[in-house]
Design goal:
The protein is an all-alpha fold. Helix content is 75%, strand content 2%. The relative contact order is 0.09.
């Protein structure tokens, strides 16, 4: 093989290679210089993620493949990789205060986020079962450690352990499903599986069930959601923000690619699974959150519900459905990161407050913070004309066009139930007596909240760019 042809083979993975080499270089820097480099490593990690995103956008247009077709870069992969990179970069920006504490100067934190992002990018581009598993494990192993990064906190350690044990179980289920699919089709390549799976034999359907169970765990869909509330509550708040954003993008991406490109011949079989999972996730996410008193646990159930709504679009199995999923996840990431910027701001006397009752009277002590948080909560509830309304609109319209009327009706009804607990927080902020003054908002949190808030409030004015990019990305799968 000539040098030029080898270079062309590696071109599709250039952003991933730069991210991997950069992460290793930062690891060496931290290992030699010690904990005082934490701030520098975090700053360089953000720069590295921006560089990776730029390289991803500069790749040649069209569909690129390498490693024998097991790694593919198309419009779908580009869209979701940029979204995952944004989620990871914003998480590192939100983490600066957490890492500035002398007892928590852990330079490894940023490197683990980088390695997890590398896993997400591999996962998003995976075009066979082996590459899928490699990406999934690279993403997950770093997440297990990050969950327990607050080493002096028993809850954080418990969160890491729970996530690890349940994650290992889900990986086993996914591998078992992948081995069954390989056994019955004779190939691990998605295109080869699609060609072999013309009829849903019992063995293939069994394999698909186990494979989807493993993926459901990664998006924290019911009934594989059991880790989510405890891990969200126990992990440090910036880590919870990370869990709720970037890994969800990668997991939904691989969910979409696997179902639509590897199993297009047996849509009715996997559609039944997705309809059940979507209904269960929407229902549990809406009803279980009502009794929560901790804002991070509430966001965990909110996340479960939102993944259910995203799967409504995927269950339709159409281009419109895939487009709906992409629009939904992009808006969801913006709403979630903005909400966590507010949660991270909630500090009194140097101590973080996480009870929902601590938001009482916020509109009187900090009116702008309360207003932007209220808009984000209205958006999460799906109130028009905010961005969250359009996210749900696209997935429900796709479900109706696919004839899934019951699913769409249940989705609308659970949205109404879910609105109750978001409105409860708004009622607390605007109508209850103040619980006390919160500390001034740090510049990085203010920036993230401002960008998320403006995107959320004014999305309806000019939704065209996001929708057109999502449509092109969805079409590249078909």
């Amino acid at each position: 093989m000539s040098f030029s042809s080898a270079g062309y083979q590696l071109l599709p993975v250039l952003p991933e290679l730069v991210l991997a080499v950069g992460a290793m270089a930062l690891l060496m820097l931290g290992a030699y210089r010690g904990a005082e480099t934490t701030k520098l490593v975090t700053g360089l990690a953000v720069v590295l993620l921006v560089l990776t995103g730029v390289l991803e956008l500069m790749l040649p247009a069209g569909k690129l493949t390498t490693f024998g077709g097991s790694f593919v870069v198309d419009d779908f992969a580009r869209f979701l990789k940029i979204l995952a990179i944004i989620g990871s970069a914003v998480t590192l920006i939100l983490s600066t205060e957490f890492l500035s504490d002398p007892s928590r100067r852990i330079f490894e934190y940023s490197i683990l986020v980088l390695l997890s992002t590398l896993g997400m990018m591999v996962l998003i581009s995976a075009a066979d079962l082996i590459m899928l598993y490699l990406g999934l494990e690279l993403m997950s192993l770093a997440l297990y450690v990050v969950a327990a990064s607050n080493r002096d906190n028993a809850k954080s350690n418990e969160a890491g352990l729970k996530y690890f044990v349940l994650g290992a179980l889900s990986s086993g289920m996914l591998l078992y499903g992948a081995s069954l699919i390989y056994g019955f089709t004779g190939t691990v390549d998605f295109a080869g599986i699609a060609a072999a799976v013309k009829t849903g034999s019992v063995g293939i359907v069994f394999g698909l069930v186990f494979l989807l169970a493993g993926l459901c765990f990664k998006v924290s869909a019911v009934p594989f959601h059991m880790w989510t509330p405890d891990v969200y509550e126990g992990a440090p708040t910036p880590v919870t923000a990370f869990f709720a954003s970037a890994p969800k993008v990668a997991a939904l991406a691989v969910f979409t690619r696997v179902t639509l490109t590897a199993f297009p011949g047996i849509v009715p079989q996997w559609q039944q699974i997705l309809v059940f999972v979507a209904i269960a996730s929407m229902a549990l996410g809406s009803f279980a959150a009502i009794g929560q008193r901790n804002i991070k646990r509430l966001m965990a159930y909110s996340s479960i519900g939102h993944m259910g709504f995203a799967l409504v679009g995927l269950a339709s199995g159409t281009v419109e459905g895939a487009q709906g999923v992409l629009v939904y996840i992009a808006i969801y990431v913006a709403m979630t990161l903005g909400s966590f910027a507010v949660i991270l701001t909630m500090k009194r006397n140097g101590q973080a407050v996480e009870q929902i009752s601590d938001f009482a009277g916020l509109s009187r002590t900090n009116p702008m913070l309360a207003f932007l948080f209220a808009m984000l909560l209205f958006s999460l509830a799906g109130i028009p004309p905010l961005a969250g309304f359009f996210a749900k609109w696209y997935v429900f319209v796709a479900a109706i066009k696919a004839g899934l009327f019951t699913l769409a009706v249940i989705g609308v009804l659970t949205s109404v139930v879910g609105a109750f607990y978001y409105l409860t927080i708004i009622k607390l902020m605007y109508f209850d007596e103040p619980a006390g003054q919160v500390e001034p908002m740090r510049i990085e949190l203010r920036t993230v909240l401002a960008v998320a808030g403006i995107f959320n409030i004014f999305f309806f004015v000019y939704p065209g760019p996001l929708v057109s990019v999502a449509t092109a990305a969805a079409k590249s799968l078909f």
